[in-house]
Amino acid sequence: MTMDPDISIMVQCPFMGELTQDQVQVEISSEHNRRVLLGHEQKIAEIWKQRCQETPWLFNGAKFRIRSAELASGALVLRLGLTCYKDYLGTNWSADAPLLQRQGLADFGDSQAYLADPLGVGAMLHTADDCFVFLRRSDQVAEAAGQVDIPGGHPEPKAAVKDVAEESIQLEHLLGELVVREIFSSILGEIRDEVNVPLESLSRPVLLGIARNNKSAARASAEFYVRCKLTSEEVRQHYLIGGPEAHESTGIIIIRREDVLKLDEDAERWRELCPSAKGGVKLYSLVRPRMC
């Protein structure tokens, strides 16, 4: 597989060396939060106001910010802080994102220092009859409208704490092991909500690696592999009934595994994929997890 300029690989598990939940650790610290660039904060507020006018159902929410990830001795350490969706749209998706990256390099030697960089999750969902599940994104979503994606979203800090209002979540409320649990469980929830398949039909997710979306200023997404006990036709029928997040997509696309492994050789179909889907396909091809 060739490398597409839309994506880059931040972390790749070795061949047939996917990571389970107990092989991932999280370090939470304010040191991993976005740096504040005073001259850009007003722009973030203006961008958010405009986006909410264009898409009234947008809402701001807390997200985990990924600063770095280190894979060593069969374990992965994620260094995370806190950010929010408003800051994501106002930095990673801002027209000034390249300027922010250059300023981050100049000030801190880190191109991502001034960017929100919320950690995303995506799933290569493998059916019982050896196919993978993709979704055509709605024209109404804030990102990658109309493109083909894999099921995914964001792990939520509010799901990793109890009895704390989302707007009041602080780093001291977050325990590393609970954050890891939320990262792994969140992808199952996204599959359930977007594809409408029951959780009991899904295997425990394994992590393939982390890919960066260069269309959104190198925002990172953890890409998982998940087995489904249902056939592709059974998955399709569940999808057509509609789940809690059915509005985010307009159709389901089933692709056989052998064709997924050749996707980037099919230029037309590859161009239809948004960067998060390209990252998932790329990491699946590189890692080739054990199909158990």
Describe this structure in words.
- With 292 residues, the chain is α+β, with helices and mostly antiparallel strands.
- Helices cover 32% and strands 26% of the residues.
- It contains nine helices and eleven strands.
- The protein has helices spanning 38-54, 85-91, 97-108, 157-160, 176-195, 232-241, 257-260, 267-272, 275-287, and strands at 7-12, 24-28, 62-72, 75-84, 120-126, 131-137, 148-149, 152-153, 206-213, 219-227, 249-256.
- The strands form three sheets. The protein has a five-stranded mixed β-sheet with strand order 1-9-10-5-8, sandwiched between helices. A three-stranded mixed β-sheet has the order 2-4-3.
- A hairpin with a 2-residue loop joins strand 3 and strand 4 (75-84).
- It is globular.
- It starts with 6 loop residues before the first strand and ends in a 5-residue tail after the last helix.
- The mean pLDDT is 94.
